[in-house]
Design goal:
628 residues, 7-stranded mixed sheet, alpha+beta, 24% helix
């Protein structure tokens, strides 16, 4: 009887869809029919190793445990698959596709006990647009559950880079289920690019060769096992989720072999390296510069190549071609070591001073040379602490800008916000920051400080940049395999709400910084990032304006990294009255409570041009107000 009823409802739904939208009905009808057939054969379940669920506002009555899309990023007109994990209800599932608060499509189907529901639909045809899927499950007892998930649609990831990483390629610890779980979690956070950190054999010859044949196993820079099969598995999984796979490699690193070693991982010597490729500490070019030494943890010494050397550039470019020939990587994530003023004077092989300050030119040559030889590949380069940004951006060959945040950029929220604004405004490119939270506590086991992570992400996201922080774990320092700090369940849930919200309002956050006067009769607002106030960031786009509200009331520090894990949870605020001196003729206002998810809640907009008024009912850490 249950199946008969299901089919009756299905037939009625299909008829309605064909009458309303022929193309969409064909996609939806086939999807629902295939879901009904396949659901009797198997049950769809998540990998339990990864805790990546949406936040249940009312777990006692909410029968939806999570929502999941099959890709991190969609092209316009793709067919998308939504999976609704639920607690076993028989009932009606309704999915509304919303573009910035306005419904553009609706899908109805049926859920069955103990079978997680899937439905397929056509992503709308607009490019570089974000959507919210509003999912409602009504069971046969009348209980209603409602959750949302964002959907990112763009034909090119450089329009909306959300970067993650992988760093473990040891087959002893990475099973198929582990790898799938990692990618599933990252996909759920809409991460559309992966940095493959320390995957290679040596900096100067990334692929391990034995008697002219590439090997399938080697030990990495830090002497960890790396298997070609695991690397390729991660690449394939990333591609299945429409993520770019970027291999990491230093732009000027050499790891000389030790010919006397009995360890074959160390004994072979790269005979192709010439004297002209190195940097030296003396004018007679007899003493190379070693930046770190072999130890129980590090496989070999690391010495510096000269990025200004044409010989080095040609050699490195040849190695990049070999990597692309061996692996289906989408591009190269180029690393550097920044402007270390404490280094001694260094010389090229001719005895001429090689000033660190001129290395930026070498970066440009390396990027352009690699791109010219691999025109179908993507390139990103780390402007460590802003070093080399102008040359990297000026090359025109990187998909977006990437900066590792250290003391030159600054230690405060204000420093980070200033850097984002200056960099994006100057170079007109999207920006990803590598900013390592609670780094001072990364040397031993512990748990991330939730308010510190969320406040830093709110500052980065609210200013329109993104943050590389998620992989197999959350980053706590510059050595990506370091997993000493873990995330609490509260942080996982709230962070997922942040990522969904960030995606849902991304086109607004990528707009220009606004300068409208925004005041409150109930709360102290500020454009700086000091404690005791609510900071607002206004961004203007062709769609309208977005105003991020970041709650610093109750916090005790303006230091974004929170090295000692002392940052306090902001004191929740309510009924924040805003007056916004924006002069456009807006007709709608929405509030997104980012800690809780990406639901666009329409609210009352009163006033007139130049004096708009709304009330924000609550603020925990980060809310976004949208006027359209």
């Amino acid at each position: 009887m249950m199946i008969q009823l299901a089919l009756m409802i299905l037939i009625g739904q299909l008829f309605w869809e064909m009458e309303s939208d022929k193309l969409m009905s064909e996609v939806n009808a086939n999807a629902v029919l295939s879901a009904l057939v396949s659901s009797e054969a198997k049950t769809i379940r998540k990998n339990n190793d990864i805790d990546a669920r949406t936040k249940n506002i009312n777990p006692a009555t909410d029968q939806i445990s999570d929502l999941e899309l099959d890709k991190a990023l969609y092209s316009p007109n793709d067919v998308a698959t939504l999976t609704v994990y639920h607690s076993g209800a028989f009932g009606q599932l309704n999915v509304k596709i919303l573009k910035y608060g306005t419904q553009v499509n609706e899908i109805n189907t049926i859920t069955f006990p103990s079978i997680d529901a899937q439905c397929k639909f056509l992503v709308p045809g607009d490019d570089n647009v974000q959507y919210v899927l509003d999912v409602t499950l009504t069971d046969n007892s009348g209980n209603i559950s409602n959750q949302q998930i964002a959907l990112n649609a763009s034909s090119d990831w450089k329009n909306c880079p959300i970067y993650g990483f992988v760093s473990n390629y040891d087959s002893a610890s990475v099973t198929d289920a582990n790898a799938s779980g990692v990618i599933q979690n990252l996909k759920r956070h809409h991460i559309n690019g992966l940095q493959f950190y320390d995957w290679f054999d040596r900096e100067d010859e990334p692929i391990r060769w034995i008697d002219g044949v590439p090997n399938t196993y080697w030990r990495t820079f830090m002497n960890k096992a790396s298997f070609e099969a695991i690397i390729k598995k991660y690449i394939d999984l990333a591609h299945d989720s429409n993520m770019k796979a970027m291999f990491y490699l230093l732009a000027y690193g050499i790891q000389p072999g030790i010919s006397t070693s009995t360890d074959i991982q160390k004994s072979w010597v790269n005979s192709n390296l010439t004297a002209g490729m190195y940097l030296y500490q003396d004018t007679s070019a007899t003493k190379t510069y070693k930046i770190s030494s072999a130890s129980d943890f590090q496989k070999l010494d690391l010495v510096l190549a000269n990025p200004l050397s044409e010989e080095w550039q040609l050699w490195l470019t040849s190695q990049i071609r070999k990597v692309f020939a061996r692996f289906s990587f989408d591009g190269w994530h180029i690393d550097q070591l920044g402007a270390f003023s404490s280094y001694p004077t260094l010389y090229n092989s001719a005895g001429t001073t090689a000033d660190w300050g001129t290395f930026g030119n070498g970066f440009g040559y390396i990027i352009t040379g690699a791109h010219n030889n691999n025109p179908d590949k993507r390139f990103v380069m780390n402007a460590v602490d802003d070093y080399g940004s102008s040359v990297i951006a000026g090359s025109g060959d990187t998909d977006f800008l990437y900066s590792e945040v250290w003391s030159n950029i600054g230690t405060t929220y204000q420093n980070v916000a200033n850097y984002i604004k200056q960099t994006i405004t100057t170079y007109k490119k999207n920006l990803v920051l590598a900013a390592y939270m609670n780094c001072g506590k990364s040397g031993s086991s512990g748990v991330f400080n939730t308010p510190a992570v969320l406040l830093t992400d709110a500052v980065i996201f609210g200013n329109g940049a993104s943050h590389i922080e998620l992989g197999e774990h959350m980053l706590c320092n510059e050595y990506f395999p370091n997993s000493n700090l873990s995330m609490s369940t509260d942080l996982q849930n709230r962070l997922l709400g942040f990522y969904d919200s960030y995606v849902s309002v991304l086109n607004f956050l990528h707009g220009a910084w606004g300068s409208d006067a925004i005041t409150s009769s109930t709360h102290t607002l500020a454009t700086d990032y000091s404690t005791g106030k609510i900071t607002f960031i206004e961004k203007e786009s062709s769609y309208g304006i977005a105003i991020s509200l970041i709650n610093f009331i109750g916090t005790n520090s303006d230091q974004w990294r929170d090295d000692n894990q002392t940052q306090a949870e902001p004191t929740p605020q309510s009924n924040i009255e805003l007056k916004i001196a924006a002069t456009n003729a807006y007709t709608k206002a929405y509030i997104i409570h980012c800690d809780s998810g990406c639901k666009w809640e329409e609210t009352t907009l009163s006033g007139t041009n130049g004096a708009w008024e709304i009330t924000v009912d609550s603020l925990r850490v980060w809310d976004v107000v949208v006027l359209m």
